[in-house]
Amino acid sequence: MNIRLRLSLLNFLLFAVWGAYLTSMGSYLHRAGMGENIGWFYSAQGFVSLFMPALMGVIADRYMAAQKLLSICQVLSAIFMCMTAWMGMTQGSEIRFEQLFPVYVLSVAFFMPSIALGYSVSYNALRIEKLEPVKVFPSIRMFGTFGFICSMWMVDLLGFQHDSRQFFVSAIWGFLLAAFALTLPACPVMGNTSKKTLANALGIDSFSLFRDKQLRTFFIFSILIGINLQITNGYANTFISTAFNGIEAYADSFVLSHTNILISLSQMSEMFCILLIPFFLRRYGIKWVIIIAMIAWVLRFALFALGDPGNGLWMFILSMMVYGVAFDFFNISGTLFIEKNTGESVRSSAQGIYMMMTNGFGATIGMLGAQVVVNRLVYSSNDALTKLEGWTNAWYIFALYALTITILFIFFFKYNKK
User: Fold this and answer.
1) 212 pLDDT above the threshold of 80
2) Is the model's pTM score more than 0.90?
3) Where are the alpha helices (DSSP H) in 162-258?
4) Using CA atoms in the order 129, 287, 413, 363, what is the torsion angle rounded to 10 degrees?
5) Domain that includes residue 32, residue range
6) If you write DSSP's letter for every residue of 243-282 in order, what string do you get?
7) Residue 193 located in a structural domain
8) Over the stretch 65-115, which tens digit does the pLDDT of each residue have?
9) Distance CA 320, CA 270 (A)
């Protein structure tokens, strides 16, 4: 099979695993009586990203081929995801946070490194074929978004978006990915080719990347921008499907029953925006690409505050459209920036560090902070209209934060275009 098709399938499966629950888990938790703990579940992805991607990156650089490690991670993640689904199904509304949360954390602990490993495997295969990643990878990564959308639609149309069966869908995709990863081109392992110090063996030397001022500043802003990443994944479905319930004007709204389908427009936008990345990177450079992404985050949150399932539905739809720019122009461009600005001996480690900054520190801080805001403004009241007003104010707070970081980034990130 052509290497582009094989890598496209890799990305399809990888993000299908995530798409099965990432946008709908909050709705399930709300209905299971754990709405006030949504932030903890989504921040778990960030917490494990503080160390797991970097750790697995070190193992992939020095001890085990990345495609084999990817397979192992997916098997373990799928097993724990099956346990999460089973506990939710058998205990129903009696399930407690302290029962479900630890098993879920173990699953995402092995899934989150898979994203960085997937990028490393993809970039390695393209180099073997003498293909330029900046030019070729965006069209391959687009199939990851397609897989995410397919998984979202599957969960929605099967009626799983409000219950724990969505986790079973994720696990099935995970087992398929684990098998397929073993068929991909072997990644180099530095192994015992030279005498290593303790710092080499532990991968601590990869943090020498912070000595470079440009990379250091980029990693710091990766945290600050990463705070935005999971907020709408955690709360958008819950907001749209529950905040407008009981309001007569929206009683027959299609999007209240099929919120996942509406949210999937965000991923459709991603598929298109990925293809724009090579042009924008060549024309404007990484700094302006990320500035554009940050402006899109401001619009993403503000349009949630202004929209509704009735006459304001177009604002929700527009919010979904700008998400592709917000996510891709930051996330995908960031991995390409790391690929072009690091040496071969630390590339997998560097991708792991980038994941640690964005989906680790950034997402953890972002989701725990968002949980405080939402619990204070929304879950502190039982009145439907007060809750709706609380949601509106929360989205405005998130938009104001994104605008502040945009301004800081413009002044403090000095890009040395190469």
Assistant:
1) no
2) no
3) 165-181, 198-202, 213-226, 231-243, 254-257
4) -70
5) 3-187+205-412
6) HTTT-GGGTT-HHHH-HHHHHHHHHHHHHHHHHHHHHHHH
7) no
8) 888 999 999 999 999 999 999 999 988 878 889 999 999 999 999 998 888
9) 9
Q: Summarize pLDDT for 336-377 with one digit per residue, the tens.
A: 777 777 766 666 667 767 877 887 788 889 999 999 999 999
Task: Find out whether 368 and 43 touch, Cβ atoms under 8 Å.
Answer: yes
CA proximity to 411, closest of 291, 274, 258 = 291
Q: Is the CA virtual torsion 144, 149, 150, 154 positive or negative?
A: positive
**DSSP labels for 49-86?**
TTTHHHHHHHHHHHTS-HHHHHHHHHHHHHHHHHHHHH
Joined together, the tokens standing for residue 152 give 């979202």
Distance CA 352, CA 117 (A): 8
In the block, tokens 């949504």 appear at 38
Query: Does residue 197 lie in a domain region?
Result: no
Do residues 378 and 305 touch, judged by C-beta distance below 8 A?
A: no
CATH of the domain at 73: 1.20.1250.20
Question: Is residue 18 situated within a structural domain?
Answer: yes
Residue type, 317: I
| Residue 175 CB partners (closer than 8 Å, separation 6+) | 74, 75, 78
Number of domains in the chain: 1
